[in-house]
Design goal:
Strand content: 35-45%
Distance between the termini: 40 Å
Low-confidence stretches: none
Mean pLDDT: 94
Structural class: mainly beta
Largest sheet: 7 strands, mixed
Number of helices: 0
Length: 127
């Protein structure tokens, strides 16, 4: 089973940028559906961005569209989430998720559709 390791979180001022990485050592991610989720205490986990394995189609949570970008470096078996123009409401633990199942567009940002998860990385946006 693929192992996912997130990194790149930290403390950033509003308007700043961070790039999260999700590494899958020894695993080719080409056949995996990949996604980023986030969660804050007391709230349900929400899908932030996803990439479908079949057509590389991407989807984004409405509040991050235009600010966040998901990408994959297959040579490094790593998925990235570039986050720009960060806001305090982006503060959360961010998780990387994967599945080899084929998902339709409406499933892409639904957490129960994924079976492999990283441990998460904290992102804090604060002045």
């Amino acid at each position: 089973q693929v192992q996912l390791v997130e990194s790149g979180g930290g403390l950033v001022h509003p308007g700043g940028s961070l790039r999260l990485s999700c590494a899958a050592p020894g695993t080719s991610l080409g056949r995996y559906q990949m996604a980023w989720f986030r969660q804050t205490p007391g709230k349900e986990r929400e899908g932030v961005s996803c990439r479908r394995s079949g057509d590389n189609n991407t989807r984004y949570l409405g509040s991050v569209r235009g600010r966040f970008t998901i990408s994959t470096d297959r040579t490094k078996n790593t998925v990235y989430l570039q986050m720009n123009s960060l806001k305090p409401e982006d503060t959360a633990v961010y998780y990387c998720a994967a599945t080899r199942r084929s998902l339709i567009a409406s499933q892409c940002l639904v957490d129960i559709e994924y079976d492999t998860w990283g441990r998460g990385t904290q992102v804090t946006v604060s002045s």
